[in-house]
Amino acid sequence: MYKRIHSLLLATVLMAAAGLVSAQSGKPLYTFPLGVESYTYRNWFPKDVVATLDTIQKLGFTEMEGGVPRGMSAETFKKLLDERGIKMPATGTGYEQIVKEPLEVVKRAKALGSSYVMVAWIPHQKSNFTLENAQKAVEDFNRAGKILKENGLTFCYHTHGFEFQPYKDGTLFDYLVQNTNPDYVSFEMDILWTTHGGADPVKLLNKYGNRWKLMHLKDLKKGVKGDLSGGTPPENDVVLGQGQIDMPAVLKAAKKAGIQHYFIEDESNHEDVYVPLSIAYLKNVKE
């Protein structure tokens, strides 16, 4: 009964999405596989992994970034993904784990078929990311990234907003990029957190080019003023194209930078409605 009701709801939302997004003239701007960050379904996976993956498949996603559901092996999860034609090019891990157990991270990533491993947070005192925090991260990322590269993987640090603390003529994010070895450390841009931290996603994409390998697609509610906390209430996540981010400009700059993998991430509490609308936006946005 649950699957039948959910399938009907999904079909209704998809039809509504098709009607809400008007057709535009020109060439399609988004031409990459449709990807999703598994955190979007953080409240779904614990209830039913298979049903959640079925929903992800029905939405048309063929790529996913994320980790292994609690209580399941990487091998079992990979089998479920394979059965649905979903690849996991990138997987996530915590800062402490990649520092202390990089080879365990490598093992899990390979079991999932991933080429990229991302870390989305650097430990620091709330709202006070310091040069010392950045210096330690540089040291740890260079060391862990070297181990990952030696095992055929690429390490990526995911922007979370607090890194844009002013420093010298730029920010501590500039310090991270400029002091990590490009052979060992790459980056994933979360465009909401980048914007929320006061940075310009397009300028950063143009500035650092192919240091960017992955992207989280999400939008920040209009009128919201960001800060350096790396946090914002879930109601500030909105459907792609409905917020304050210039999505066409971001997509053009990301394509120019060479990014190949994009993951819709919805941190709202309305992912069942918002995600289909974001998919419709990506399919209809034109150059």
Topology:
Elements: H1 2-20, E1 35-37, H2 49-58, E2 63-66, H3 74-83, E3 87-92, H4 95-100, H5 102-112, E4 116-119, H6 131-150, E5 154-158, E6 166-167, E7 170-171, H7 172-179, E8 185-190, H8 191-196, H9 201-208, E9 212-217, E10 219-220, E11 237-238, H10 247-257, E12 261-264, H11 271-284
Parallel strand pairs: 1-2, 2-3, 3-4, 4-5, 5-8, 8-9, 9-12
Antiparallel strand pairs: 6-7, 10-11
General description of the model:
The chain has 287 residues and is of the alpha/beta class. It has one domain: TIM Barrel (Alpha-Beta Barrel). It contains 11 helices and 12 strands. It has an 8-stranded parallel sheet. The chain has a two-stranded antiparallel sheet with strand order 6-7. Helix 3 (74-83) links the parallel strand 2 (63-66) and strand 3. Helix 9 runs parallel beside helix 10. Residues 1-5 and 11-22 have low confidence and may be disordered.
